[in-house]
Automatic annotation (TrEMBL):
Gene3D superfamilies: Leucine-rich Repeat Variant (1.25.10.10). GO terms for molecular function: nuclear export signal receptor activity; small GTPase binding. SMART domains: IBN_N. PROSITE patterns: IMPORTIN_B_NT. GO terms for biological process: protein export from nucleus; ribosomal large subunit export from nucleus; ribosomal small subunit export from nucleus. It comes from the Eukaryota. Belongs to the exportin family. Residues 42-108 form the Importin N-terminal domain. This is Importin N-terminal domain-containing protein.
Amino acid sequence: MQLLEQAQSLLNFDSQTTFDVNVLDAVINTMYRGQGDAQRQASEVLNVLRDHPDAWTKVDSILEYSKCQETKYYALQILEKAIKTRWKALPKEQCEAIKQYIVSLIISHSQNPELMEREKVYLNKLDIILVQILKHEWPKKWPNFISDIVEASKTSESMCQNNLEILKLLSEEVFDFSSGQMTQAKAKYLKDTMCNEFTKIFQLCEYVVDKSRHPPLLLVTLETLLRFLSWIPLGYIFETNMVNTLIETFFNVPMFRNVTLRCLTEIGIFNKKKSINLSSYCET
């Protein structure tokens, strides 16, 4: 009971009150590993805290001082909700600070292969949050994003691997999940921009295939390409070496065979239905 009484202090956002991350860690631990009334009350406190309009202002402190991965993930959930629901209401300076903060966290985690593997769930959530920011900021307020991420990808294989994950998530948000989540005009604008910028992304995929011998990076490249195949202009498929590369370089390697077959199946569908003009789709 003493812990739950302390937990109430987490809901006090008075500037004179210190936000105790250790208490939050303990509440999270009770929610995941406790029982009965204690677990239920811990869950209630966490739900109220997550819904508080100022909860996102504590995220940086939580991420810096928490010793618990579940707490850090919870903090990212708070931030993601704020970005989805309150981004346009936040001052420009705060939006820029959040953006730079998330980018710096992603870079610090993806530059270190061991850290990236150890905290891949946490990093994936950071990637998802960045994509939510991009839906508000790109391309109008962040016109160089694609160029920046492509160039940064050439600095290390681990960073390249995560950056391709980000591009895959962005593609899914724009082309697969946009219905009902954004206006038709906004969805069209993002689709057009993605198509117009695709040359840079395609060149990055070619660069990886040509230069890398790192299996996890090559696998992510193929998985990312698979997501792109539903919307890229047909010229990238039939007027380049893509099909030959898939067959000759990847199909006979057990690790890559499944995703390669899925890519070739997708390409086969396009080839069979030539009436589907994807380059026109990108312009509509």
